Amino acid sequence: MISAPEKVVPGQPIVPILPDSVYEAGEGASMKKLYANNELITCIVSNKLGKVITQEKDGKTIISVVSVGSGSNKITTPKVGDIVIAKVVRITGTRALCDIYSIETATGTGLINSVLAEGVENFRGVVRSQDIRSTNRDSVKLVECFKPGDIIRAQVISLGDGRDYFLTTSRNDLGVIFAKSNGGAGQMMLALDWQTMVCPETGKTEKRKCAKPF
Question: Can you supply one Gene Ontology CC term for this chain's record (predicted)?
Fold first, then answer.
């Protein structure tokens, strides 16, 4: 059985659906198709920020996501090397400004182990144009990599200027993990490759710096 993350953010893949899979999506989760290794894979994806709950029923494993109350969360300060999940809130000429929602420690098990409490001010992060990808950095156009409302997976590379953490998405597994078309007003898009997402309803494509899902 595939291990599911303990806590998730909107759009985060929880488990892939394989031919002999016994997983079904419950409350707070849904079935989505994502591209991984040039293959279209059906996954159970989180629809909200919360904790993953599994329940056995009629030979199936039902995967649900429930909201996490503020009293059960511990606030963890991001550190250099941490992997974080963040929401892009504003784009400038050379920077993407983000709110950090969750933290995965560099020495952890690959699962998100700290989700920020509801009602608490988020940590802020910045992805500079030179930190978006590892090649052709001088030709990066921010508007072709991120849009406000995108959920990204990034790594903390420094404590920044004292207010914002500096983040990078240069690794293959870092970048946009959840985005909606038409500036957030449309449907959730699927990643075609590392720089293109497509709306499954309209077939229209948009440029993003996509994270490899698995």
Answer: cytoplasmic exosome (RNase complex)
CATH fold of 7-66: OB fold (Dihydrolipoamide Acetyltransferase, E2P) (2.40.50)
List the one residue out of 75, 174, 78 whose CA is nearest residue 124. 78
| CATH code linked to domain 70-177 | 2.40.50.140
Question: How many helices (DSSP H) and strands (DSSP E) are in the chain?
Answer: 0, 17
Tell me the pLDDT of the chain (214 aa) as tens digits.
567 788 787 778 888 887 777 888 998 898 888 766 667 888 888 887 788 988 888 888 899 988 765 444 455 678 888 898 899 999 998 899 999 888 875 444 333 444 444 444 568 899 999 999 888 777 888 989 999 999 999 999 998 766 789 999 999 999 999 898 876 667 888 888 888 998 888 888 999 999 986 5
What residues does each domain of the chain span?
7-66, 70-177
Q: Secondary structure of the chain: what % helix, strand, coil (to 5)?
A: 5, 45, 50
